[in-house]
Specification:
198 residues, mainly beta, 17 strands, 36% strand
């Protein structure tokens, strides 16, 4: 049997292989950070924290400083707690067939719309900072059911615009600050009176 002939030093490519491996890890991390959408499936039950990877499908939690779309689906682990420090949500959706979620925890910045496609009541008890863009109001589509906001909703320096959509009910249990309702600036007190404001 012939002896294999080795050309060159087999160890000289080790630094190159290590560099490629590191680049692959970095690319995976960047991909997770840049993920454009996260869908909740509650797989980490009874742990309802947003940073639990198994709560999302596919598995993998948003990182601090996230900027993405969220969909809450399924009927498992319905108490979902934002334990991330900062983040921006472009659009929120409660999916068709979803159970009645209660969202709690740290404040988030909202720069898009909230849509309830589930047909059942949804509760959002986390504070929201509404990004200001007068050309694009924030639509809250309650569908045929209810969205209850228990966390304070504010705009940081100027008036953000909220527009209620859908035949259902929109309830605020905390004040609205620097919010526009149908183009009318003002601060609204909590309670059913805010429905007319919108």
């Amino acid at each position: 049997m012939k002896t294999p002939i080795l050309i060159g030093n087999p160890n000289r490519n080790r630094p190159l292989r290590a560099l490629f491996a590191a680049a692959g890890i970095l690319a995976s991390l960047n991909s997770a950070m840049a993920q454009s959408a996260f869908t909740w499936d509650g797989g980490a039950t009874p742990n309802g924290n947003w940073n639990a990877a198994a709560n999302w499908n596919p598995d993998g939690a948003p990182a601090n400083n996230f900027n993405t779309n969220f969909t809450f689906a399924g009927a498992v682990n319905l108490l979902a707690t934002n334990n991330l420090t900062t983040g921006t949500i472009s659009n929120w959706t409660f999916a068709a067939g979803a159970g009645s979620f209660v969202l709690t925890g740290n404040a988030v910045t909202n720069k898009g719309s909230i849509t309830n496609s589930s047909g059942v009541p949804q509760t959002m008890n986390l504070p929201m900072i509404m990004a200001v863009n007068n050309a694009n109001p924030h639509y809250i589509n309650v569908g045929t059911s209810v969205i209850t906001n228990g966390g304070q909703i504010t705009a940081p320096t100027a008036n953000a615009s909220l527009v209620k959509v859908g035949a259902g009910t929109l309830v605020f249990n905390s004040p609205l600050t620097n919010i526009l309702g149908n183009g009318t600036p003002g601060n609204a007190a909590p309670g059913s009176a805010t429905i007319g404001f919108l």
